[in-house]
Amino acid sequence: MFDELSRKLDGALKKLRQRGVLTEPMIKEGLREVRRVLLEADVNFQVTRDFLARVQERALGEAVLKAVSPGQQIVKIVHDELARLLGEGRPTLATAAEGPTVILLVGLQGSGKTTSAAKLAWRLGREGTTPMLAACDLQRPAAIEQLRTLGAQIGAPVVAGEFGGDPVAAAAAAVEKAREGGHSVLIVDTAGRLQIDDGLMEELGEIRDAVQPTEILLVADAMTGQEAVKIAQGFDEALGITGIVMTKMDGDARGGAALSIRGVTGRPIKFIGVGEGMDDLDTADPERLAGRILQMGDVIGLVERAQVAFDQGEQEKLQEQVLGRGRFTLEDFLVAMRQVQKMGPLDQLMKLIPGAARMKIPAGNLDPKRFKHVEAIILSMTPLERRKPELLDRSRRARIAKGSGRPVSEVNRLMKQFKEMQKFMKQMKGMMGGGGMPMPPSPSH
Ligand SMILES: Nc1nc2c(ncn2[C@@H]2O[C@H](COP(=O)(O)OP(=O)(O)O)[C@@H](O)[C@H]2O)c(=O)[nH]1
Ligand SMILES: [Mg+2]
After folding, report:
1. What SS3 state is found at 413?
2. N or C terminus: fewer CB in 10 A for the chain?
3. Is 223 in the pocket of ligand 1 (CB under 6 A)?
4. pLDDT tens, 11-32?
C-alpha cells in the first residue's frame, strides 16, 4: 500500500531533511518535487494545490524548533497535512438511537461490497455487537450464495431476498428481521453495475428510503485511481453517502484516490480493505495512514516530542546564559539533560539530532538509569561546586559520592566527561555562531 508514493515522497523530502539551514527558495523547490510526486501518484490536481499551499504556509510561518533540523520539521508538516487530507481524527460509525443501526453498502460491481459487508460484520462482531447481514443483490444467485458463505464463515446470520425478487422489499424485511432478532446492527449488501446509471441509483435510492440507514458507505476500488473519486462524487450526489470503504489498498494502487477522495467529496474514508480475508479491513485512521505514506515515524515522533517537551523559553535562556557567559557549567548540564530526557527514549533521539551522531555514543550509555545516577551526583554538589567544577578536589568528590550513593570512580568519570563536553560546547559555539541547542554528553560509566 502506498509503496511507490511513499518511496518517491521520501526521495523528494530527502534533500530538505538533510540540510541544516533552509531558505525560502529551498523550501519552495523541495515542495515542487513533492507536488510532482503527488500528481504522479494520481492525486487530484486541486487537492494537490491546496495541500501544498497549506504546507508551504506552515513551513514558512512556523517557529523553527531548535531541537530538530528544519527539514525534519517540514517532514512533520507534510505528515500532518497528509493526515488532514485523509480526514479529521479516527473515523467512527454512527449508531442509531433506536432500533438496529443500518449500514447500507453501495458501489459498482466488483468493488468489494459483499466482501466488505462480511468483513465489517466480523469486525463489529468482535467489538461486541451481533450484526446481521442482508443480501439485497438479487440479480445473481451467486451473489446471495457468496454472502451466505461468508456469513457462515464468520458466524453472522444472513437474511436474503429471493433471486430475481424486489431488493427494496427484501431490504425492508431485513430491517424487521434484525429488530425482531435483537440485532443491533444490520449490514445491507446491494447490487452494483459496471458503471453509474440512473436505474442503479433509483433502486438504491428506494432501498435507502426503505431502510433509513444510519450510514451509507460507498465501497470503492482503490485500483481504479481517479475513477474512484468520480464514482464517489456520483454516488454522493445521488444518494448522499456518509463515508467510503476504500478496497484493494493492498494492490499496487498509486494511492492518489485515497488522498483525493475526501478533498473532492468531503466524505471521509472510514475503512480500508487490504486483502480478501475477513481480517483485512482496517479503520482508516488518518494519522496512521499518513504514517504509512511518509515512512518516517522516527522523524515525526521526534518533532512531536520536541514540540511537547522543549520549553522554548527555558531553552533560549539556557543558550543565552551558556553563550553569553562563554561557560558551560554543571547546572546548564543538568537543565539540558532534563529537557532531553523529557523527549523520550534517548537512543532514538540521539540518532536523529543533527551532530549527535558525530559524538559516537555507545547505546548502553543512554540508559535512563545512568542519567538518574548523573543527576544524583550533580544534585549532591553545592551550587558553587556546580558552577565551579574545578573546585572539586579529592575530598569534595568523596563527599559527593557518599551523598549520591554512587562510587567515587563514577564521579570522576562524570567530571572527565563534563570537561570534554565543555570543549565540545566551545566548538559548537564557534561552529554555529550562537544557534543550536547544546546537547548534554552521555553519562558514560
Ligand atoms: N485484494 C483484495 N481483494 C478484495 C478486497 N475487497 C474485495 N476483494 C476481492 O474483490 C472481488 C470482488 O469483491 P466482491 O465483494 O464480490 O465485490 P462486489 O461485486 O462489490 O460485491 C473478490 O474477489 C474479492 O475477494 C480487498 O480489499 N483486497
Ligand atoms: Mg456483491
Report:
1. helix
2. C
3. no
4. 888 888 877 777 888 888 889 9
